[in-house]
Write a structure and sequence with these properties.
- This protein has 300 residues and is of the alpha/beta class.
- It has one domain: Aldolase class I (TIM Barrel).
- 36% of the residues lie in helices and 19% in strands.
- The chain is built from 11 helices and 16 strands.
- Strands 3-4-7-8-9-10-15-16 form an 8-stranded parallel beta barrel, surrounded by 7 helices.
- A hairpin with a 2-residue loop joins strand 5 and strand 6.
- Helix 1 packs parallel to helix 2, helix 3 runs parallel beside helix 5 and helix 8 packs across helix 10.
- Bound molecules: flavin mononucleotide (FMN).
- Flavin mononucleotide (FMN) binds next to strand 6 and helix 9.
């Protein structure tokens, strides 16, 4: 019998453990619907803020042999407009679990955004954007501040609460503990890592913002380590550099219940979801294992 790979995550039922990560094809209804139809188990939207944000001027993305460096500046149309877009996703694919990523300049602003999100099955706090001042890393890398942020947002929504953590800390476990204590249902690890690329002809940083967030295969071992350290605190979504079924299984064996995929969608296209699902099924079949038996297997 073909092993099933459905998972349950804070009450959400996913047909497979693969989640579209925030910020990649998550800006429009048509893109989100395409990703779900291509085989994602759940969808995370682009981070949305209270007011529209234009984002930085180009260049905002640099392709590297081992990943991407981006500093988009969290461009988004603001929550009121965006919710209309998300209603269109729900009309097209009502069964798709939708996680709405929210951000803002202060705990009160993030809570305000979360309080009006009336579409989707869960809310994710982006407490970890490394290249937009005030949007996360300053708050997200201190346990006390992340506790305050999560507590405020927890009071503003009854939806399951996902909290996305930064790896830019000496102690991600303390961040996870503070988030869970304040009401997080799921920890998402990791966001991108602050980094820089310099153009030696121009003798200056390539990105208009100078700094950006590094994603893709370069950060995968960091993400696997973070998941390993967090996964006994709460269910974890492991994100960072997953491109193949082996990479996804690494996250799951480190203790992830589900796996986020971002940069690989750019690099490999939408087939990546189906390809990874099939690879996981084949692996489980060949070993006579269930997915549950593999979760956290590397920890024992
Ligand atoms: C172009 C781009 C935009 C992103 N935008 C967001 C965002 O709006 N909110 C967020 O929480 N993470 C954002 N991320 C981070 C991803 O969701 C993910 O955590 C990170 O890229 C690591 O996963 P990956 O290596 O599979 O891309 C973005 C990443 C990229 C590459």
């Amino acid at each position: 019998m073909t092993p099933g790979i459905e998972v349950e995550l804070a009450g959400l039922r996913l047909r497979n453990p693969l989640i579209l990560a925030s910020g990649i094809m998550g800006n429009t209804a048509s893109a989100l619907v395409r990703v779900y139809r291509a085989g994602a188990g759940a969808l995370t939207t682009k981070t949305v803020t209270k007011e529209p944000v234009e984002g930085y001027r180009n260049p905002v993305v640099v392709e590297l042999p081992f990943g991407l460096l981006n500093a988009m500046g969290l461009p988004n149309p603001g929550v009121d407009y965006f919710l209309e877009e998300l209603r269109a996703v729900k009309r097209e694919v009502p069964e798709a679990p939708l996680i709405v990523s929210v951000g803002g300049n202060s705990p009160d602003e993030v809570a305000d955004v979360a309080s009006v999100v009336d579409v989707g099955e869960a809310v994710e706090i982006n407490a970890s954007c490394p290249h937009v001042s005030g949007h996360g890393v300053e708050i997200g890398s201190t346990p006390e501040l992340i506790g305050e942020l999560v507590r405020k947002v927890r009071e503003s929504t009854s939806k399951p609460l996902f909290v996305k953590l930064t790896p830019m800390t000496h102690d991600i476990r303390s961040l996870g503990e503070a988030a869970v204590e304040a009401g997080a249902d799921v920890l998402v690890a990791i966001n991108t890592i602050r980094a820089m690329v310099i153009d030696v002809e121009a003798m200056k940083p390539v990105l208009s913002n100078k700094f950006g967030g590094l994603s893709g295969p370069a950060i995968r071992p960091v993400a696997v380590r973070a998941v390993y350290e967090l996964s006994d605190l709460a269910p974890v979504v492991g994100v960072g550099g997953v491109e193949t079924w082996r990479d996804a299984l690494e996250m799951i064996m480190a203790g992830a219940t589900a796996v986020g995929i971002g940069t690989a969608v750019y690099k490999k296209g939408l087939n990546v979801f189906e390809e990874i699902s099939q690879g996981i099924i084949k692996y489980l079949e060949s070993r006579g294992l269930t997915l549950k038996e593999v979760v956290g297997a590397a920890k024992s």
